[in-house]
Write a structure and sequence with these properties.
- The chain is an all-alpha fold.
- The relative contact order is 0.16.
- The longest helix has 21 residues.
- The mean pLDDT is about 75.
- It has one domain.
- It is about 45% helix and about 0% strand.
Amino acid sequence: MHLKKDERQGDGEAYRTGKNDDSADDCPLPAALSEAQADNAHYQALNAYADKRLDKCVFGENKPACKQCPVHCYQPAKREEMKQIMRWAGPRMLWRHPILTVRHLLDDRRPVPTLPEKYRPKK
């Protein structure tokens, strides 16, 4: 059974990622982004898209870091946009949320779990 973001229990990457989405809300937007992208509705829509993708992750609580995941659930354009945002937010996260930064770095070192049986390609 797959749990929604607010029903998740435990300490998995998907749980922490969903739980900590609000922590990015207090960070100012990067000055390099255009006025059109700085629109709050744009970031809310992107956040909703990320939540939807996390809720549908085939790995569930054992989710690896997205950059190591064999299943790319984001659309290519959204994936590039998330990379841009993470490149900007990553260094700032160290000062605003040092414990989350350490957890995130440790999660990057975790081995990628095997794909669940029902999602493996048929032979």
